[in-house]
Amino acid sequence: MRLNRLNASAHPPLLRSRLRTLLLTALTGLAALTLVGGLLLAWPGRAGAAADPLISRGKPATASSTESSSLGAKNAFDGDPATRWASAEGKDPQWIRVDLGAGATVSRVRLTWEAAYAKAYRVEVSADGAAWTALASESAGNGGVDDWTGLSGKGRYLRVQGTARGTSYGYSLFEAEVYGTVGDGPPPGGSFTVVAAGDIAAQCTASDSGCAHPKTAALAQRIDPKFYLTMGDNQYDDARLSDYRAYYDKSWGAFKAKTRPVPGNHETYDPAGPLAGYKSYFGSIAYPQGKSYYSFDEGNWHFVALDSNSFDQAAQLNWLKADLAVNTKPCVAAYWHHPLYSSGGHGNDPVSKPVWKILYAARADLVLNGHDHHYERFAPQDPEGRATADGIVEIVGGMGGAEPYPIEEVQPNSQKRISGPYGVVKLDFTDSGYGWTYVATDGQVKDTSPKYSCH
Predict the structure, then answer these.
(1) Which has the closest alpha carbon to 176: 88, 62, 270?
(2) What distances in angstroms separate CA 318 from CA 258, 293, 323, 324, 401, one per listed residue?
(3) How do strand 2-4 and strand 294-298 relate by DSSP bridges?
(4) Is the pTM of this model over 0.70?
């Protein structure tokens, strides 16, 4: 059942800013009526939905586009009626989706439209962010508030897919509220999301339609994770400080303060000296412990950021052993540039084997790399490449913006390979495990991993 409360579509588009104020006033009045008389609870079809809690507020959100950086997808799920998401203007279709954190049963969806509303749209759910099932659809929308009750759908992700605009603008939502139950209770308190990519900033900017790193940056920013990981070759070709400022800073630099980088081989080509531009640009972010390698904790996870340009030096290997020896977190992830195993043009790089041996002995769970410009995931394996349940899972995620490399020789234990679509790895960590998706710049999920438990 859909209850439509407020109708803004009858007014001409030229009054858009005024309508926004009027709509907020109307919403305030509606809230007052609710408190005084219990109007909404008395409405037919509402009694059953009222019992289910709001499960979408503050959850990670993404969208097909945004009109500006201040009108991002997360605004539709922040509980603030003064903020909103707005898509690019004049384009169909457009979508906004929310990650509920775990499988959920959805019973109600309440959409509060700005003056730029959807005439036609679908409300959909998905278990994996790839295959979608419709919960409700509208073909003659008139804006205002659409309150879909009596729904029955299950999935981790919910999406509002706009197929026809009601105005000449785009789509805009003050709030999208999802009600229901998540699993057997709320998501684990230690859950968090991370975005990762390597091989990022070619020498181009958003003014060049073929430039990929501004697109992967926009995607990464829409996901709005706890923090970002880069797996080296952040800046091409020689990683000078001037290049970082001219290219990387114009895209991925937007969230520099939340980035935890490592260097790649291109960071060593700087005429000013190996890693000179890298260190000058990132400063203490890249050298928080005074070295080009470091570690940090988040929730139940211990993260180790390594410099694979110096894996042949005892100092870093000794530091790694000491760091893991005092780690108290049950889950361990490490990331650096050169992968031990890869089906791409660079292939396997044995320089990483001593590090794998140290990590394997410490029962590490996950390794992320770049260098080869494709996406690939491997089944758990040991340092010798033998499949084993207690092995390390490896991801190659070198599709941040540099020209893609083809898949050349498929390695044992390689489970999935994608070359071509640029994108980022979206990792979801819990108190006791992890999983991820590979998301392309068009917002489509190209691969979904198994769910793994920590060793």
Answers:
(1) 62
(2) 28, 12, 9, 10, 34
(3) unpaired
(4) no
